[in-house]
Design goal:
The chain is of the alpha/beta class and 574 residues long. It is elongated. It has 21 helices and twelve strands. Among the domains are: 2-311, Up-down Bundle (ABC transporter transmembrane region fold), CATH 1.20.1560.10; 411-485, P-loop containing nucleotide triphosphate hydrolases (Rossmann fold), CATH 3.40.50.
Length: 574
């Protein structure tokens, strides 16, 4: 949590002035009981109305000045807390952008969203209250005790007894509740994760009639979160009643002792009222302090979660001790393999493949065979845990990731578009692109009919491309990748929603691209890759065969099985 305070350095002035003005307000508040005592002992006792009026005006002045100090303190505390969280949220967002796929898999999307929103708001609230009350409340408590000693030492001894007892209760409850609040946030992550999955996959849920089972799962997680929150709430709820009992007991004893001393003529009635007011001030401030401790406890738990996310390693370090490959080849896999973090077995093993510029490589295999894993090694979204992946003879681990990915056009399995115009979406490929180049890329991606239907490049796209069909989304994402004129083009099962004629036209246009990129086509269809220069067949993460379509039909049983499942066996002999 302490490491996060570096984001407060630009708000040092506000973080200092906020508590300072609160202490000034508290100082004026401590003077009020003395003024009230003077009114009672001199004004009322001597029936001096002029004195009473003057002292009442002093009380009003103290209230106005205290209000000004309080508002000023709130202003500076708000500036510091909001500015601090703004910088912290930006730092976390930037840090998340640098996460590798492995780090995102390890942390989870739902927990990162929780830390960016709920945890940030909790930290902001906690810091605001801390700047306003952390110094003020103890200052008033001990200041009231000191002022009580200046009035009457025997009566003030009850202050000495009450304050440690109250502190023991407050900090005891804090120590118990701190770890529980951390568990509450973890369970909130689970609830958010289930909610996110259900909202994302709502169509699948309805298609398979799984609404009831998912509702039951959500209810179970939600009830577990509720039960833990109730438990923490019951513990925290002890603060107010126990504090009130102790402080009111101290007030009773104070009034008893004070009344005896008033009867004996040792102190005045005004002094007793002042002692009572100081004890009441202690009560109010300890209640504030108790609530502050609860909020600080929540904020510390949230701050630790944010710090844990910031401490996760991000980005991919550039290595220099790599063996060079053959620079004639655009891409090389040299006995490359990958084992995901926490996985028992390798997802990809011993892949060797060399691809020349302009060549087209088809990647095919059953579900879970490692097709997407293979192509994700090229832009270093995942890092090979064995062997090497080389681009132009250089190990991708020795190349700056940004420079590497600038040369690659990737179309992922899930077509992702953003809210805005078609032009804005296509310009993600390259900022300095002309409309003519955008149209050329759309034509190559067989997406001109999409532009015609939506009113050209200025046609609007809803978030996620909701107003487009699956095939339209895929063609626009392919066009976006082509805009950057990539040296390596990766189509990760990105034509699955296209009809056979459009798919064939797309493959022809890719072969005719003037930049002659090395093209990797991941597909479940043998028709999409049958004309590729090389086809790599994967089976459970291992290479089952490499070659051209006709050769694999003769030598690779896995490829034969995939082909036969999509075409009549008579077509093979025809």
């Amino acid at each position: 949590m302490k490491k996060l305070l570096i984001y407060l350095k630009d708000y040092r002035k506000e973080a200092l002035l906020g508590p300072l003005f609160k202490l000034l307000e508290a100082g004026f508040e401590l003077i009020v009981p003395l003024v009230v005592a003077a009114i009672i002992d001199r004004g009322i006792a001597q029936r001096d109305q002029g004195y009473i009026i003057r002292m009442c005006l002093v009380l009003v002045a103290l209230g106005v000045v205290g209000l000004i100090c309080s508002v000023t303190a709130q202003y500076f505390a708000a500036r510091a807390s909001v500015g601090f969280v703004t910088r912290l949220r930006h730092a976390l967002y930037v840090h998340i952008q640098d996460f590798s796929y492995s780090a995102l898999d390890q942390v989870g999307i739902s927990t990162l969203i929780t830390r960016m929103t709920s945890d940030m708001n909790q930290v902001q609230t906690g810091l605001n209250l801390t700047l306003r009350l952390l110094l003020r409340s103890p200052f008033v408590v001990f200041g009231a005790m000191i002022m009580a000693f200046t009035i009457d030492v025997p009566s003030a001894l009850w202050f000495v007894a009450a304050i440690p007892a109250l502190s023991l209760v407050i900090f005891g409850i804090m120590l118990i509740s701190l770890p529980l609040y951390r568990k509450v946030q973890e369970k909130l992550d689970r609830v958010l994760g289930i909610t996110r999955e259900n909202l994302t996959g709502v169509r699948v849920l309805r298609a398979f009639g799984r609404e009831d089972s998912e509702t039951d799962q959500f209810r179970g997680q939600n009830e577990a979160l509720t039960a833990l929150q109730k438990r923490v709430g019951r513990i925290s709820a002890l603060l107010n009643p126990v504090t009130y009992v102790l402080i009111n007991l101290a007030i009773l004893l104070l009034m008893h002792t004070g009344s005896l001393r008033v009867d004996a003529g040792l102190i005045s009635q005004g002094a007793l009222i002042a002692l009572y007011n100081y004890m009441s001030q202690i009560l109010v401030e300890l209640i504030k302090l108790a609530n502050l401790i609860i909020n600080i406890t929540k904020s510390v738990a949230s701050g630790r979660r944010i710090q844990a996310a910031l401490e996760l390693p991000a980005g991919e370090p550039v290595q220099t001790d790599s063996r060079p490959g053959d620079p004639r080849f655009r891409v090389q896999f040299c006995h490359a393999g990958l084992k995901y973090a926490g996985a028992a077995d390798e997802s990809l093993s011993d892949v060797s493949l060399s691809v020349l510029p302009g060549e087209t490589v088809g990647v095919i295999g059953g579900t879970g065979s490692g097709k997407s894993t293979l192509v994700n090694l090229i832009p270093r979204f995942y890092e090979a845990t064995e062997g090497q992946v080389l681009v132009d003879g250089k190990d991708v681990r020795s190349v700056d990731p940004a420079a590497l990915r600038a040369r690659i056009g990737l179309v992922p399995q899930k077509a992702v578009l953003f809210k805005g115009t078609i032009r804005e979406n296509l310009r993600w490929g390259r900022d300095d692109v002309t409309d003519a180049e955008l149209l050329a890329a759309a034509e190559a991606a067989q997406a001109m009919d999409v532009l015609s239907a939506k009113g050209g490049l200025d046609g609007m796209i809803e978030q996620g491309g909701r107003n487009l069909s699956g095939g339209q989304r895929q063609r626009l994402t392919i066009a976006r990748a082509l805009v950057r004129r990539p040296e390596i083009l990766i189509l990760d099962d990105s034509s699955s929603a296209l009809d056979f004629a459009t798919d064939a036209a797309l493959r022809r246009s890719l072969r005719d691209l003037p930049s002659r990129p090395a093209v990797f086509i991941v597909s479940q269809r043998t028709s999409s890759i049958r004309h590729a220069d090389q086809i790599i067949v994967l089976d459970d993460g291992r290479v089952a065969g490499i070659g051209r379509h006709d050769d694999l039909l003769k030598t690779c049983p896995v490829y034969q099985e995939i082909y036969d499942s999509q075409f009549r066996k008579e077509a093979v002999t025809a």
